[in-house]
Amino acid sequence: MTDVSNSGKLGEPLERLDGPAKVTGTARYAFEQPVDDPLYLHPLQADIARGRVVRIDTSPAEALSGVHTVLTHENAESLSSRVDVELAVLQSPEIGYRGQVIGAVVADTQEIAAHAAGLVEVTYERHPHDTVFRSDDEIVYTPDGSNPMIGEDLDRGDVDEALAAAEYAVDATYTTPAEYNNPMEPHATIAVWESAELTLYDSNQGSYTVRDMIAPTLGMDPQRVHVFAPHVGGGFGSKGVPHAHVMLAALAARKLEGRPVKCALSRRQMFSLVGYRPPTRQRVRLGADSAGRLTATEHSALEQTARVKEYAEQSASAARNMYVSANRRITNELAVLDVPVPTWMRAPGEAGGMYALETAMDEMALTCGVDPVEFRVRNEPERAPESGLPFSSRNLVSCLRQGAEMFGWNDRDPEPGVRRENGWLSGTGVAAATFPSFSIPGSKATIGYEPGGYYRVEIGAVDLGTGSRTALSQIAAEALEVPVEAVRLHLGSTEQPRASIAGGSSGTASWGSTIVQAAREFRAEHGAEPAEGAETTAEAAANPAAGEYAMNAYGAQFAEVAVNADSGEIRVPRMLGVFAAGRIVNARTARSQFLGGMTMGLSMALHEHGVLDGRFGHVVNHDLAGYHVAGNADVGSVEVSWLDEHDPHVNPMGIKGIGEIGIVGVAAAIGNAARHATGIRVRELPLTPEKFLI
Amino acid sequence: MDAEITLRVDGQRRTLSVDTRTTLLDALRERMGVTSPKKGCDHGQCGACTVLLDGRRATSCLTFAVANDDSEVVTAEGLAEDERPHPVQQAFLDNDGFQCGYCTPGQICSAVGMLDEVKAGWPSHVTEDLDEPPELDDEEIRERMSGNLCRCGAYANIVSAIREAAE
Amino acid sequence: MKPFDYQRADDADSAIATVSGDPEARYIGGGTNLVDHMKLGITEPGKLVDITRLPYDSVEALPGGGVRIGATVRNSDLAASHVIRQRYPVLAQALLAGASGQLRNLATTGGNLLQRTRCSYFQDTSTPCNKREPGTGCSALEGWNRYHAVLGASEHCVATNPSDMAVALAALDATVLVRGQEGQRRIPVTELHRLPGDEPERETVLEHGELITAVELPAPSESSRSTYRKVRDRASYAFALVSVAAVVEVSEGAISHARIALGGLAHKPWRATAAEEALRGAPATEETFRNAAEAELAEARALRDNAFKIPMTRNTLSAVLRELTRQEGA
Predict the structure, then answer these.
(1) Which of A129, A374, A464, A644 has a beta carbon 3.0–4.6 Å from A235's, enabling a disulfide?
(2) Domains in chain C, please, with CATH?
């Protein structure tokens, strides 16, 4: 059903429309919105992992000049809904994890609020807590389903029998640590309460999501909650749903009506209040026949969840459909602990799950004596193994073949540990990538023809930094058959029509389809030469092909790794990603999305590790000096390429999401390359120097 | 405790009374409405707050405003002249050296300061010969820009942008 | 952060008198460590005396071939100084391996010497720490201690000194010039920092009110070679897991003189005297390097997460010695 003509607007490397404002810093993010006479809110957090607040003495804080209020469970208003425990702040003295919000100081300045926060005296009743991630029966259970809407475990054929009969077998356990989204812009909100209306300038991935969750919690008509996210400094999932600080700001603003209340979380506070990718322990068992074809696949994942709120990461889900295997068992279990609530982080499920699966695939390729690229090609399924549906398009093999050609893979000597230069051992590795092509229904867009001859396009979607503003303008121009300069796109707030969340790499597909539909209806109603003031609002029709095809993007990740033979230091001088992700809307911003995903994948491979101290229940390295993300010097040459993929089924534009697939497979490719360099197989992320010390 | 200070910010002389506890970053952002420098970590660990302080790149979150009385501050906003972007800014635009834009003003101030350091012959951790003037290859750019984190992962484009601006 | 009084010092004597006379007063230089600690609530001075405008901002040649580095010389200026680059490359390299460009532009020589440990528990007032609050216990001892000490630690504190510069200064036999109300004194840099013992809250031998005014380096030997090697988790902008500063002279295939200091391993820059002893007069061979490293590490004690530092140090020290003793053209 691809029927929007490729007249050149789609695919063009249009410069970011907000580029000039961003390079000068004049683009204003949530906390930077000009408001009159603001107050500053500083959250108070629990210093114990489980128990209750017995006494909270706020008087020393309140005695400070400039302090307006100290909110606690003793004086906070009773909320209308407590369904979401993250938002139901200050409703009881109970503490379910260390770092939970137990109060907030509101003062004239940040300095006073921070000082006052340190003066509040809290007495706790401590209860025993359990925060150590492990596979003990007493904390492990099987969830009803996992994120986003994946059903129960899968068990096809007889995996045990197939493994016993297999010519080659691999049985390995992989672990990934807690990883923290850490967008550069800390989570922040300004709450303004005026005439029973709440306005939130908020850093989020969906202004409507924020409204939908905040309004019922406050017992408000959603129409009276206005959310603006004009520019967002990244999110990668952690800004997908509102967290406690948004409610704190709203409650404080209601209490102190007339003064806007500003709250920006500190980097440290983010480690307990805005979610993280949960740690995983994954066992993968593969069986193959003498021809190097998989006969058995088992992927058993265990992830961490919080006792106060379930989050079920879907680490094993990719193995449902990635490769052929007549016998297949996919299980997902959770370990419930007194820890902060995990959430989405770029490619939840696939990022961690494909690290395990694609490392196991490398191990199996070596076991079978088949080249790792060739091994994957041999195990390419014709239809989606779980559902039996045809793929709307699946070009993994082409990605692997083209990547191998570009990377120089075909001359590779498979022998490990033999390439040494100036004290560094080098090697190369490959891994496959996949990510579902989601589209979320229900978004609306308005198109109006304005004096001056331009088209006003409105959609309440949030551009969290990916380039949606630019890509959607291109889609609108294409659909309206006008130059991009004739389109003025308005997005980011609940003042525009309802739009779905920027998550699951679904944004451009969902909102783009909506804009295409609105453009069609606009032209049908108002013709090619509309009158000034002509306006149409439309909602995208559901995709008739949904349910008839398996829809995913694919990719191949290649990495070159160097390991210092003395110190174990590991570097990644070269990466290549080749992707098949449908039609590319903007070659410039798309390349940056892939590049950014791959860079975060490198960061995941080498650095990221939230260390939880079980005695206290907190993340010990809760800042950017302790929790390393990749810096500039960690990243070498990164090449990005994509196939010209035509997918007639995914949506009217033929586009697939690209925000997440870039990270998938990178850690496996790097780990596989490190093994090729050194002969050492590491099955535990991150790949830090001590793991390669000889 | 308050103190009166005078700063020259992006060419404008500004006198204000600040709490001695206020950092230069917070004075700019919350007191003067200059929000081009960003707060990413507030502890000198990310570089988003980088400005040119008396001509040199510096983390504005780790210095008190009061200690910078009579200083000259240039932010990314002040680097652009009459709506015309600075060559480094133009190179960031041309090379798509950013996505969300939050680390970008700090990256750009850092790049401008760094290019001056190279011009002055300052070596870096990866400079082979400490006696010779450094040559600004990609490895040098990466090392010298490592104090500015970018979570969107635009490093490869940042390096091309700076390479281009340096030419 | 509690409110504080700020004063800009115009002359050293009055600054020293002010701080000496007020237990709540502190000097502030570049602020990169102190401002951080004040924000974290680790330290709460009532008064700051800003010493950055005192006349300690130059690098001067001394009669006899040494240099004097003023206490307020910024780390970036010191690393760029020609005399340091040419005659003390190990120091320039150590400075350039530390922090980031924008931090080195603020940080001073004196401040760098006095920077405090980056132990995560020390930096978090919600966890016990003997260094921050004597008597509360050491959280790192049984906690996350990957970055912690394997040499010279005590049951009260296993923190490491984070400075790169100080490791190079230790290998250069630098002397720290200190002024107090009683006058000036000279402290070998290797004696400036303390091991934790049962007083981990005392990191240096300085008394309250004493001000570092300069660091002096003796003249380098013309035939020595030196280097600084830092092993860290990120390629840049990360604290050391292990670092080695070494100054070595080779004469007729044997090591005539070696001065070695190790970073990331102890509560102070660790002068590797046992390794130096093992090297003196020995042939420049792989076996010698390894024996020297083993000699230094004989007393090393690993904690739960940092056992790797012992082989990492052994390998890195050997690699540094190999590099420094390599014959030109060989």
Answers:
(1) A464
(2) 5-50 (3.30.43.10), 225-325 (3.30.390.50)
Asked if A633's CB is within 8 angstroms of B142's CB, the reply is: yes
Rounded mean pLDDT, A11-20: 94
Sort out which chain B residues have CB atoms less than 8 A from C8's CB and list them. 67, 69
Residues A682 and A643 in one domain: yes
User: By the 8 A CB rule, do A23 and A16 touch?
Assistant: no
> Which residues in chain A are contacts of C241 at CB distance < 8 A?
689
pLDDT in tens, A37-57: 999 999 999 999 999 999 999
Q: Chain B residues with CB inside 8 Å of A630's CB?
A: 153, 155
Q: Which helix (H) or strand (E) holds A392?
A: strand A391-393
- Would an 8 Å CB–CB cutoff place C318 in contact with chain A? yes
Q: Do C4 and B120 touch (CB under 8 A)?
A: no
Does pLDDT of A5 surpass 50?
no
Question: How many structural domains are present in chain A?
Answer: 3
Q: Are C320 and C245 in contact (CB under 8 A)?
A: no
Q: C237 and A633 in contact by Cβ < 8 A?
A: yes
Residue A657 inside a domain? The answer is yes
Residue A114: pLDDT band (50, 70, 90) is very high
pLDDT digits (tens, 9 = 90+) for C229-255: 999 999 999 999 999 999 999 999 999
Asked if the structure places residue A227 within a domain, the reply is no
What is the per-residue pLDDT for A149? 86
Q: Determine the average pLDDT of the residues in C171-190.
A: 98
A97 lies in the same domain as A146: no
Q: Of all helices (H) and strands (E), which one includes residue A44?
A: strand A39-45
Backbone angles phi, psi at A586, to 5 degrees: -140, 110
Phi, psi of A154 (to 5 degrees): -120, 135
pLDDT reading at A518 higher than 50 = yes
Which of C38, C92, C99 is opposite residue B123, by nearest beta carbon?
C92
Under 8 Å CB-to-CB from A671, ≥6 apart: which residues?
Answer: A355, A359, A362, A429, A605, A681, A682, A685, A687
Q: What CATH number corresponds to the domain at position A248?
A: 3.90.1170.50
Select the residue from B18, B146, B149, B155 to test the C interface by mutation, using most C Cβ atoms within 10 A: B146
ipTM above 0.85, yes or no: yes
- Rounded to an integer, the average pLDDT of A119-126 is 98
pLDDT band at B130 (very low <50, low <70, confident <90, very high): very high
Chain B residues in contact with chain C using a Cβ-Cβ cutoff of 8 Å: 1, 3, 19-21, 23, 42-44, 47, 50, 53, 56-59, 61-64, 66-67, 69, 110, 113-114, 117, 120-125, 127, 130-131, 142-144, 146-148
Where residue A555 sits, what CATH number does that domain have? 3.30.365.10
Based on the fold, state whether residues A307 and A174 are members of the same structural domain.
yes
Q: Looking at the structure, tell me whether residues A644 and A628 fall in a common domain.
A: yes
What is the C-alpha to C-alpha distance for residues C30 and C103, in angstroms, rounded to an integer? 9
Q: State both tokens at A306.
A: 């919080």
